[in-house]
Amino acid sequence: LKTLNTISAHIPGSHAAKIKARNEIRAYMGYYGLPHVYLTMNPNASDSPIFQVMVGDDMIDLSDRWPELKPGSERAKLLAADPVAGADFFEFCIETFLEVMLGWDHETGKTHADGGLLGHLEAYYGIDEFTNRGQLHIHLLIWLCGGLNPGELHERLEHDEEFRVRFF
User: Fold this and answer.
1) Angle at which helices 83-100 and 72-81 cross, to 10°
2) CA-closest candidate to residue 94, choices 33, 40, 164, 155
3) Is 122 left (phi over 0), alpha (psi -120 to 50) or beta?
4) Is residue 54 exposed (0-12), middle (13-18) or buried (19+ Cβ within 10 Å)?
5) This protein's superkingdom (predicted)?
6) What does pTM read for this prediction?
C-alpha cells in the first residue's frame, strides 16, 4: 500500500498528489512563514499576439502597441491544432513573470542581485492545472525577501504613521 501511495502522489490531480502538495506547502510555511502574495495566473494563448507568433504567424508586429490579430475563431483553431505550443506559451508566460516581476533566475535557481519589480524573491510554490475548458493556469504562493509577516504588519500599521500612510 505504501508503494501505491508513493506512485499515486506523482499522478497530477490524484488524491495523493493533493495531499503531497498540501504537505509541501505546510513545510514552506513552516520555514518561510505565511506567503506574501497569493496569485492565480491564467494566460490566454488564443488572445495573445506572442502565441500567434509562436505558432508561425509572421504577419504580427510585436513592436506595435495593439498588433492586428486574426479573427478569434481562427486563433482558437490554431491553439486547438497545437496544444503543445499552448503549453509552451504557458511556460513562457510563467517563467517571464517570475523573472521580470520577481527577479528569479531560472538557471541559477536564485533571485537576481537586482531583484524584480516586487523586490527580491525568497521562495515560491506553484501548482499548475487545467480549467474545465482545457486551459492551463497556475496557483502561486510567493515569499518576498524582507516581507512582513501578519504580526509585524499589524505592529507597523499601529505604531508607524509614515508606514501606515504609504501602506494605505
Assistant:
1) 100
2) 40
3) alpha
4) middle
5) Eukaryota
6) 0.77
22, 122 Cβ separation under 8 angstroms: no
Distance CA 123, CA 145 (A): 8
- CB burial string 124-144: b at 16+ within 10 A, e below: bbebeeeeeeebbbbebbbbb
Q: What is the CA radius of gyration of the chain?
A: 20
| Stretch 7-22: mean pLDDT | 83
Place of cell 506574501: 36
Cell of 9: 502522489
| Pairwise CA distance, residues 27 & 123, whole Å | 12
What is the DSSP code string of 14-78?
A: SHHHHHHHHHHHHHHHHHH-S-SEEEEE---GGG-HHHHHHTT-TT--TTSSS-----HHHHHHH
Write the burial class of residue 117 (CB in 10 Å: 0-12 exposed, 13-18 middle, 19+ buried).
exposed
